[in-house]
Every structure is written in C-alpha cells, then in structure tokens.
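In response to a reviewer's request, we include the raw inputs and outputs for one of the modeled complexes. The three entities were modeled together in a single run.
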Amino acid sequence: MENNYSMLFPCPPSSSYQIPTSGLNGQSSNAFLGLKPTNNEISVTHDDHEDVKGEEGSVNVIIDQQDVKKKGEKKAKKPKYAFQTRSQVDILDDGYRWRKYGQKAVKNNKFPRSYYRCTHQGCNVKKQVQRLTKDEGVVVTTYEGVHTHPIEKTTDNFEHILSQMQIYTPF
DNA sequence: CGTGTTTGACCTGCGC
DNA sequence: GCGCAGGTCAAACACG
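The model returned the following structure tokens for the whole complex.
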C-alpha cells in the first residue's frame, strides 16, 4: 500500500501527544516517540540527507520502508525514522527503556554509532544513535519498528518534551 | 542479584 | 572469492 508519511510528525497538541502512526505495519500505536534534548532545538531530517544542518525549526520526518530479511523467514518491511537533534548528550530519554547491544565505528565519522533495543518483552524496536563529524552538536537517532506497548515512563517529563518540541517547531 | 554496558568476535551484504 | 563496512551476539564486567 502507498503511504505518505511525510507529515507523520506534526507537533501534537499539548493536551494529547498521540501521533498518528496507523498504516505503519498495519499497526497503530500511541506515543510513538518523544525526544528530550537537554538543550537547544530539535530538528528532524531524512537519514539520506547529507546536508545535516538543515534550517532551524524545520521539521522533516522521513520514514524509510526497509526490507528486513532473516534466515528462513519471509521479508518484513520495517519503517525507519531518522531524527536529527541538537544536543550535548547522545542519550535522548524518550520514555522507553533501551538496552545497548552494540557499538561500531562508522567510516568517515570519528564518533561511534551505538545500537539500542527496546527491553520490553516482545517489542523489538531498535534505534541507532550517532553523532555527526561535521557538526558535533548534532545527534542523529534512527528508530526502526513501532513499539507494541505503551510508554514506560509515565512522566510529566514527556509532556515537557513535547511542549519543548512545539516551541522549536513552526507549527 | 537484576539490569544494563562494554567489546571483540562473528555474520551478512555488497562491490570489485 | 576477497575485503570492507555495517549490524548483531554474547561473555565478561560494572553498578545500584
């Protein structure tokens, strides 16, 4: 099926941070994602884009339908979301619990890429966190898959995050 | 003791 | 087939 996800990431109203993800893998989920940069602005971009800086305040989410194959299993398509965040720290607390399972040096990048998996049972959402050589202030977080469970931290924190996002986006 | 991180080895895909 | 790069595994380790 054809889906246009380009507007998937509107800034949610403060009363609700439900993000429409219906159509992704035929599933829907609430609170797909939130980011908590420790400071500064959030911008979101395509993981294919080279011009990482982007314009401040611009929001651009690209979902990449990636073929994932495993031995003996049929291909499954997983949505992939790349977020670009200006932050001093690599770890963005999005409310889910993540376990790091790997770290690799990336070519043409002096910073390593870290691999995380959601620790919730049955939820195999993955994310990669990578800092850019070009701009050390930029952290690129790539999410793969959709959480099959509600967010774990029921924090006010999360609403703060979202309100921050509204501030930093032109919507 | 439970949970998460570190890190080298291993696997896989791809280009030559 | 070979080498490289990216992705994952898993044992050892650290920490509250």
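As requested, we also summarize the result in words. The radius of gyration of chain A is 16 Å. Residues 97-103, 119 of chain A lie near DNA strand B (CB under 10 Å from a C1').
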